[in-house]
Design goal:
- The protein is an alpha+beta fold and 655 residues long.
- The chain is 33% helix and 15% strand.
- The strands form 5 sheets. Strands 1, 2, 3, 4, 5, 6, 7, 8, 9, 10 and 11 form an 11-stranded mixed beta sheet that branches. The protein has a two-stranded antiparallel sheet with strand order 12-13.
- α1 packs across α5 and α4 packs antiparallel against α8.
Length: 655
């Protein structure tokens, strides 16, 4: 359904009231005057409500289409027209029915419409129908050929063995991408500068773009975790525990498991831990490169992630796999309630707002008016984004969700039926279109969907220097240092990086442990472990690391920068804002815990040793020491023992 506004003098607000609830949803607030024409269309589809649409046409004509979304259901429309001088007039059309105000004189609220308020003579009602659900796409011709081959040349045992093996490989593929995206995400300073200065976030286009880049990258990382969970649920339903511990890439640069040595662009298909840049975004495009329509399913030597999932769905579609094979207990699979597509890290402003004196939420210019979420709640096939598996159909729905979110539904830019969220490939391509050096042609640009035009003015390399920390490329604490890596020197750098890797590795062990905790206890375990370790520990630990200069000495000494050529002593080794000096960054190595059962105690022992060794040094005491204390546990100012923040999972792995 669509609202078409053709007259607005001077302010028109439209609010939708659900007929089954007491909440309200502002659709738009439009300002217009000085006899400027208005031609605004607002198509409304079912989906997650975000915010009202603010439009200012006081000094220019208003024209365009501004999509909005509301939860599916019935609504009453409340209309308020405000005049601040001279004659007034309002007119809009809703689903073919025109609603006009009576043109007259007067100031203030001059026109009200809605339930029991006149004019109009009766309530304005409308329906938002549910979005059509995604369907599992039918097998293409090449998939049908493979299914016929599986039916005629395999047997039941071979089909189950290969299905389990390739699902574990798919889990490892998704796992391999997560550190790549997180490393780039942590290199971005999303709210650069002192907010009291007009040159910093959110007052410049560059700073807002950096915040958006961070939100989009994090939204992809979150969905990769969803994809890993979906593949893990299918594998567990087939009677095999997914294995994450020790299966992150051993060293970077790395290749995705099973990937052809050559990428879609003909070059080497390797991926790096590297800070955000135009060149690194091209690696992201290669990871998420869309499989051509009708591509060959490939179990090994694949060039696009879609091909390995195509191979898996061919096995599931064969005569050897039936619903009875998915007998893994649903209540021990990762539950739907453990996933949310958005968090504070996936929201960004699409316009400026006053950060120091925030406007009220209902007014144009407020933060809520410009807030956008990078993910949508309807980008999935089936009953939910994270589903439990007990049939071939549910397994196919999970695989379709992974394909649509990663590469895009039906080879378009969107991955949801309401066309509100982009696929991973398109999100990265959209970011690249803003950067100097972007071209619509090239071996890493897929022919479909058609690439976007370059955005001007472009974000330059100098712009990036102001919002991206100077992270080393492929850092490691390994000795000897492999070719292509940056080896960390100095005990402090190695120790802190190793503890960060231990925290990351323990997070993977806790993910495996979810399959040992049944629903409903699993939700509490999830919140106490993965939510704590990912959002409140690993994320903050990495942000604390990047405040430390990589070449900082043990004794605090000032380091000169362009912005502070004569820094005071000793804070030169700590700086929360990007500059040209290399920073300490995570390595995301597999930490060599002796076993899952001993991992917690070994991590706490490592943290305790580090705390004893470096307490009292400025580079440690500022932020890093606080998060080390959360790992070991600490005594607060009231003398109460707090923590450790993460639980010991040895009870689940004792055998």
């Amino acid at each position: 359904m669509e609202i078409h506004i053709t007259k607005c003098d001077n302010a028109l607000t439209l609010v939708a009231w659900p007929q089954s609830d007491d909440v309200q949803y502002e659709i738009c607030t439009i300002l217009s005057g000085n006899n400027f024409p208005v031609d605004v269309r607002i198509p409304i589809s079912a989906g997650e409500y975000r915010s009202g649409i603010p439009l200012n046409g006081v000094g220019a004509p208003l024209k365009g289409s501004y999509p909005a979304s509301l939860p599916a259901g019935g609504y009453t429309l409340a209309v308020a027209g405000i005049n601040w001088g001279g004659p007034w007039n309002f007119s809009f059309t809703l689903n073919g029915q025109k609603y006009d105000s009576n043109n007259a004189s007067g100031n203030g609220v001059v026109w009200l419409g809605g339930d029991g308020i006149k004019p109009p003579a009766s309530a304005i009602t409308f329906q938002v129908p549910p979005s059509p659900p995604f369907a599992v796409p039918p097998l293409n011709d090449k998939e049908k050929v493979l299914v016929d081959k599986i039916n005629s040349t395999w047997n039941k045992k071979m089909a189950l063995d290969k299905l389990r093996r390739h699902l574990q490989a798919a889990v490892e593929v998704e796992l391999a991408t997560i550190p790549i995206y997180l490393y780039s995400y942590y290199s971005i300073q999303r709210t650069v500068g002192d907010s009291s200065k007009a040159a910093d976030f959110p007052y410049t286009r560059q700073s807002r773009w950096a915040d958006k880049a961070g939100a989009l990258i994090m939204s992809v990382a979150v969905e990769e975790m969803l994809h890993m969970s979906l593949s893990s649920n299918i594998l567990f339903a087939l009677g095999q525990m997914p294995v994450l511990f020790g299966n992150s890439p051993k060293v970077y640069p790395a290749s995705l498991p099973g990937h052809s040595p050559d990428g879609p662009d003909g070059g080497r298909a390797t991926i790096d831990l590297a800070p955000f840049s135009e060149a690194h975004l091209r690696q992201f495009l290669l990871i998420e490169y869309p499989a051509p329509a009708g591509a060959e399913p490939e179990g090994e030597n694949w060039q696009t992630i879609g091909q390995i999932y195509s191979y898996i769905r061919c096995i599931i579609s064969s005569k050897w796999i039936s619903d009875s094979d998915f007998n893994g207990n649903r209540k021990y699979q990762i539950q739907s309630g453990n996933y949310s597509p958005n968090s504070i890290d996936t929201v960004y402003p699409d316009d400026c707002f006053d950060k120091n004196t925030p406007a009220p939420a209902e007014q144009p210019g407020s933060a809520s008016k410009v807030a956008k979420y990078a993910s949508r709640g309807d980008s999935h096939v089936g009953s939910a984004q994270l589903i439990q598996i007990s049939s071939c159909q549910e397994a196919m729905e999970a695989i379709a969700t992974i394909d649509f979110e990663g590469e895009g539904f039906d080879h378009t830019r969107f991955d949801d039926p309401s066309q509100g969220e982009r696929s991973h490939y398109w999100k990265f391509l959209t970011l690249q279109a803003h950067l100097a050096g972007y071209s619509k042609t090239g071996p890493d640009i897929a022919p479909s969907p058609p690439p976007p035009d370059p955005v001007t003015p472009a974000i330059t390399s100098d712009d990036l220097k102001g919002v991206v920390f100077n992270f080393p490329k492929n850092p490691t604490t390994a000795s000897p240092v492999p070719a292509g890596n940056t080896g960390y020197t100095g005990d402090f750098n190695r120790d802190i990086a190793d503890l960060c890797s231990a925290l990351y590795t323990y997070m993977l062990i806790m993910t495996e442990t979810l399959f040992k905790v049944p629903d409903p206890q699993q939700k509490l375990f999830f919140n106490q472990t993965l939510h704590m370790s990912m959002i409140w520990m690993l994320d903050k630990f990495c942000q604390a690391m990047r405040q430390v200069y990589l070449n900082a000495p043990d004794t605090p000494t000032p380091i000169k920068t362009k912005t502070d050529p004569n820094p005071p002593t000793p804070p030169g080794i700590l700086n929360p804002q990007p500059d040209e000096h290399p920073r300490l960054a995570p390595t995301f190595q597999n930490y060599p815990f002796a076993s899952r059962a001993k991992a917690w105690s070994e991590m706490v022992e490592l943290a305790t040793t580090i705390d004893t060794k470096y307490k009292g040094q400025a580079r440690y005491d500022s932020d890093i020491g606080y998060y080390v204390g959360k790992i070991t546990g600490y005594v607060n100012n009231s003398g109460v023992r707090v923590g450790p923040a993460l639980p010991d999972v040895r009870q689940y792995w004792a055998s």
